[in-house]
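Supplementary Data S3. Sequence and structure tokens for construct A.
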Amino acid sequence: MLKDATMPIFSPDRHAHVPSYVKLTKQPIAGGTYRPLANDEDSNACAPSALSGHHGSKLYTQKSAIHATSDNTSIFISGAGTLPCLPEMVSSGSVSKDVIDNNNQITPSKLQPQQPTEQPLNEAVSVCKKAAHTTAKTLSAAGHAVAKAAKTTGHAIHVAVTAVKTAWHTFTNFKAVQLIIKFFRKAYGPWKKRMRFSYAFYAIVFTLLTSAEVIFLQWGVYSEPTYDKGDEVDQTTKILNSVAGQVTKFVSQMWLEQKSLFLVNFVGLGLIYLALIFVTNRFWIATLLFGTAITAFGVANSIKIQLRNEPIIPADFTFISGGDAGNIASFIPDNSQQFVENAVTVVIWIIAICLLLFLLDRRKCFIYCSWRKPFASAKNTVGTFSRALAAVVSVVILASYATNLGTGGSWSNMWAAKQGYTPTLFDAAEDARNNGPATTFLSLTKAPTMDKPEGYSKQKMQAISKKYSKLANSINKSRTQQLTDSTAIMILSETFADPTRLPDITFDEDPIPNIRNIMGTTTSGTMLSPGYGGGTANIEYQALTGLSLANFSDSMIVPYQQLVPTQSNPYSFNQIWTQKYGESGSEAVHPYYQSMYLRNTNYKKFGFSRLYSLDSATPVEHTEKIGESPYASDSSTYQDVLDLIKNQKNPEFLQVVTMQNHMPYSNYYEAEDVLQSSVTDDTPDDEHSAINVFSTGLKYTDQATLDFLSQLNQINKPITVIFYGDHLPGIYLKEEQNPDDSFLLHETDYFIWSNDASPSANVKLDDSEAAFSSSNYFMSSAAEHMNAKISPYLALLTKLHEEIPAISRVISNRGGIGLGTATYLQSDGTVTDSTSMSKTQKQLLADYKLVQYDQTSGKNYLKESDFMSVD
């Protein structure tokens, strides 16, 4: 406060309109002087006029003391020199003359040089005040703006609501509307009193619908038998072998054979149904979902059995999640269109009936509950808890049942076994026919990859690595070339197989004369395929990895969908090139959609730098088709490969999967171009027509392949082609029913060819080595054909191929030998089994299984060694 300064003269006229003020008494100044803090250099700041103008209102207070809060507050400094403003203060009457005289006695030399200590604090306070004032002003303005906007919005809403109310009242005042309202008011009473359907009625619907779906699914896996004209078959046998007879047998075996497989399928579907009921807590909505979904599943299952001799499995749903549902629908054959349309009609009826019953049933909730007031009463508490518990328990039981059904010794597996369940998952179609498609599907929900081989350990795998490193060194002593010095093209030709191999079918001309001639001059032979009518990805997986499906567990049906996506670093042969050339070491071409069989995901894991497909970031350039075919021709696919080879800077590995000859086999080609075949009289017309169309496609492949190899011969780069067909199409309905033809339906053709610029041009391995093979051996055979050095892993496959020429997962009764998950061929093409093998064969097979387990299910100990490295 200004303790020693006198107050300004009070002017009554000036303050007549304000309350009375108290004038403070004068205080003498002793031993010092006052200096203004605002601006020492500006003498006008101390002028009385300035004091009066700026501080006049601050020097008075209503009945209270003056506080030193002025912006120009002064502080007393002891011993300070006379301030230049003091005379003016005296003349104005603000400071007494005596005080000025006393101050004049103080010399300037006694003034203190430092600034007052309170100055920074006062300046900070002043800044804070100004900031607070500015913030408050800003917030106030914002608040006013928000309030104004809210008011405007509220007014607009009010106007809109008023308009709607007015329009509604106008509408409801019409006489016709009034009549309708009166009708519903009268009907509301009886409607509100409509009955609640009993739980017994729910149980009846549950039993009937589940049973009907079990029978429908089972009906879809059977086909009508065909008989030769010379066969004498009585009417009873025909009835029993018909679809209706087989379905009847499946149901009646509960009493005739004490095999309750119908019950096992009923329980599996029933658990799904119950889970839907308890999760939705709406019986009729759950019924709608269950009936629609299972009916659609049954239709898809029947078509897949017809086309590929394989039922729907859980891994197939990756097609839907990958966005390929529309592409799959395009595979539906013409003769199944009516079946699909009838199924759609049934589904529409199911939806309509369920919605109607949902409206008629006053019991909306299957279990009473109240989410709004869950604990308002004992009834609400019990109902809400029961509803939540039922949903959780039903889902847990379903998951436990499904995941344990395919695991021996588990509770659901043991229960199903007591009912007669005997899994044969190595042949999923046969398993579906014997055990029911619902049981087959659920048993594959959790698929173990491989059983752990006896003796598996880190020490054992290190010993295997050393063992085959020595073998590789021995083999490499006589080999002079490197795999990575050449470009390797592995071509999977869709459904390529010699159509003249099957009996009872002859052609006016050879469908594949050029490829037949090529096979006669280069390494070639017959490939034993695990697939018939499908399974392309499995054969491709074996060719790229060297692993065999025969070593996997029965439930591992499609590794591309069940295994590879979960692996962190799977091995494939293209990595031989990428290890040397990096990203430019391998590419892939597939003239279809990249997510089919999850190729886009799997190829990345394998280390391919690019996949060229119809929908890839850089799509295939050539997509020309033949006639009305929906697929890119082989000649256009070959042109994409030629473009890549011409632009490559270094040798690389190219993976090619064609699409031209993919099913279905409709009338794609001009009538005069279609090959004509002769078949036995009992061959169905649909089968005969499909064989002709399929064989015509092979004729186009034959010419395109010859042209492709001719163009490769003109390129001055060493190139080796590994060409093979994956499987036969599922069109040989008559042959499927003949056990003697089962091997023929699993035989395709392959060859390994090198261009003129390659050191291995015109090489042909002896038929004793190449006559029979399986796709897991192709890379080791190509290395032998090219006289190229190999890795310990390829050394194992080379030796294994010498001892066991072909390994596959095939079912056959040829020679009276009942085969299980694995089929082995001798060098002469005869079948052998693991029990009759030599000691060397057994040891090689045991080592092979250990290597495969280590790569897919084990600790991957071999990764720490040079087992996969090619020197």
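Construct B, processed identically:
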Amino acid sequence: MFRSIWLYLLLIVCSPALASPNHVFFLSEVAPPYYWIDENGKAQGVNVDLAKALKPLLPFSSSLEHMPWARAVQETLDNPDLVLLSLLRTPNREDKFEWISPVNHMQASLVRLKQEKAALVNSLDDAKRFRVGSIRGYGSASFLQQEGFEENKNLALVAEPALLWKLLYMGRIDFALANFETGKYEISDAGFDPNDATSEYVIEELGADLFIATGLKTEEDKVKSLKNALSILKANGEYARILKKWGLEPIESAQ
């Protein structure tokens, strides 16, 4: 099912003759509490609710799809009318996207299993003595590489959160770099007990906001319509209700 959806979306975005000028694709990755498929095959999460709430407020049609995040980010850079619903805003991305609206604040930390002894990690240099995992395409992964972590040495990169937590719980890595509050959803979804994990070291440099964002090729009128729709959701309280429903704190002051 996932493969068929991905191939369909790839065909749409790569074929101008098939793309509709009056449509946008909202993109998410499979990452609770933002997006996941429940036991009944139904999509759930923050991004699902946001996409539904935005739909009637837009002067064009819209739909929500999911794909691996590194692919989603690249497709959004290369093609118009693709909107990422939860993109980490980082300095190296600042000039590459139109930042439509903040969603919530993220704080990343190195997460380990409680059964393991405290590693006494007080800095990134300390962490380089261990195996750290992250998601390929994430801003946090790029940050680790810029700080001198090397793939296949002390850095393991995977395609999705479920694989990251599997590596940690199977003892293949010492730490997973993640937001532990949302990571608890991911851990449970991957079939593990989040009570068996703990945050060891908070990386202050990675504290940042998640944004709804689109690429620079999306028409200005569509960007304005998206910003206006988000402002309406924030003004009428629906935005805050959606975030709080899934245990997240909204950024109330930003429009």
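The first strand starts at residue 23 and ends at 28. The chain has nine helices and twelve strands.
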